[in-house]
Amino acid sequence: MKIGFIGLGNMGAPMAKNLGEAGHDVTGFDTAGVTVEGVSPAATMEAAVEGQEVIVTMLPNGAIVRTVHEAIVAAADPETLVIDCSTIDVESARAVHDLAGEKGLMSLDAPVSGGTGGAAAGTLTFMVGGSDAAFAKGRPLFDIMGAKAVHCGPAGAGQAAKICNNMILGISMIGVCEAFHLADRLGLDRQAMFDVASTSSGSCWSLNTYCPAPGVGPESPADRDYRPGFAAELMLKDLDLSQTAAEKNGAATELGRHARDIYERFVGAGGRGKDFSAILERLGAG
Amino acid sequence: MKIGFIGLGNMGAPMAKNLGEAGHDVTGFDTAGVTVEGVSPAATMEAAVEGQEVIVTMLPNGAIVRTVHEAIVAAADPETLVIDCSTIDVESARAVHDLAGEKGLMSLDAPVSGGTGGAAAGTLTFMVGGSDAAFAKGRPLFDIMGAKAVHCGPAGAGQAAKICNNMILGISMIGVCEAFHLADRLGLDRQAMFDVASTSSGSCWSLNTYCPAPGVGPESPADRDYRPGFAAELMLKDLDLSQTAAEKNGAATELGRHARDIYERFVGAGGRGKDFSAILERLGAG
């Protein structure tokens, strides 16, 4: 397939590289002028868009996605499938679907989980919103860039699923960290806390798979001095998205809001650039 | 073994019955005068305590446990092992260990998870604090009354592990319910939310095993009109215990406190007697 890839940052670059290595004809563009092995560089965004069968974007936020997709829709061939893999607000995601639809283009919102490690290894999970036909056309590319793609529903459903999932994640990570901290203060061994909770009703991904306590559970960022992984400021971004969506849609998510506030304080107090599980250290210091 | 069992309520009665059915000589006492199949009734607490090798207690709170254990220690034979299976505050648990120790009795704090269903089926999990020798002596009884017993550490470690675990549980259940509620408001299908989060970083016992959304995931109290299961007021009791322990020991558990407050409001607003997962309904109504 002829693929245009816009946004070659920490996530986009390895994703584009994996598409190229799988034999696709990939043309890439990034405002920072990044070059990626196996990806033909385009001098302008339009040059990356014209004549492609699929356009993939991986961009920092909803405002940039809206601007870039306006340019894409203006320059793209009819029949092009436009896939946005950025994590953005549901409203912007639906707006760019509408934009594509007005010109008769197929479109998908397809945010990912799995981080830069998953992008490099091609093991991302895609949460996808859009029509069945668009999902069917995009699926082979998801299979290259990731290990799993879930079709969550119509336009915006991918973003909705991602922010719902990550709201659970942010809340449960803080809960697990508070439990380790309380265990410390009660003189309960961290390994004993892990042994009980990881096999009981406290079990969760934040504890069992990504344990925030160094030396306990499977290897995780805690065992690498909290190098991310999934950085605290990205968790804050996702919790911001879920709270914005909750406010706009009248949803009651007060524990989600509290988790957002805790991550905001953590990022402001030295947490930026650390893994989101490093919040355990801050509790101990508080 | 000759066993005295004090506290034959919803949990204690089936636990005592299982010990009797396994061939032990069980004498039971309850202030309410309950009789249990296979358990010899004692007219007084002292009659249930004298001449026993093991005394098991299953009582409502720390104050009652302290009073009952004073009577036990006064009447028990030397060499008796005293096991308290109640869920109580860590401080009271340590106080009754001290009480037993002063008279040379062995003791264990051994709160359970698994609810009345687990008590009846003999599939409880015991979280146990006390000496290695005491744990070794109690183990055969745990194996009858439960499916798992974890030795968490010295006196009080069982209670500490339970409140840490249940703090994670309370927090994650609210997080999962808020995520379903947000999904509803965003027009994201609940099944799609479950499919993504239960296989991703949002996976947790509250979602995967005990899903609060009716008709989604494995069968749970949500599918039985939120009949408990694990009642909301018991979750509130456990979150109270964890916050009391946090305050007394200078631990920072602000999300745990918020979860406690949410359950307090829920119990006060019609949640009493419902399963703790029914909080999803309240979010929808809020």
TrEMBL record, chains A, B:
First-tier enzyme category under EC: oxidoreductase
For this UniProt record, give its keywords in alphabetical order, as a comma-separated list.
Branched-chain amino acid catabolism, NAD, Oxidoreductase
What region holds the 3-hydroxyisobutyrate dehydrogenase-like NAD-binding domain? 156-281
- Under which EC number(s) is this enzyme classified? 1.1.1.31
Tell me the superkingdom of the source: Bacteria
What GO annotations for molecular function exist for this entry? Answer: 3-hydroxyisobutyrate dehydrogenase activity
- Listed InterPro entries: 3-OH-isobutyrate_DH-rel_CS, 6-PGluconate_DH-like_C_sf, 6PGD_dom2, 6PGDH_NADP-bd, HIBADH, HIBADH-like_NADP-bd, HIBADH-related, NAD(P)-bd_dom_sf
Q: Pathway, per Swiss-Prot/TrEMBL?
A: Amino-acid degradation; L-valine degradation
Q: Where is the 6-phosphogluconate dehydrogenase NADP-binding domain?
A: 2-153
The reaction(s) catalysed by this protein are: 3-hydroxy-2-methylpropanoate + NAD(+) = 2-methyl-3-oxopropanoate + NADH + H(+)
- One Pfam family hit: NAD_binding_11
Family as reported in the entry's similarity comment = Belongs to the HIBADH-related family.
What is the designated name of this protein?
3-hydroxyisobutyrate dehydrogenase
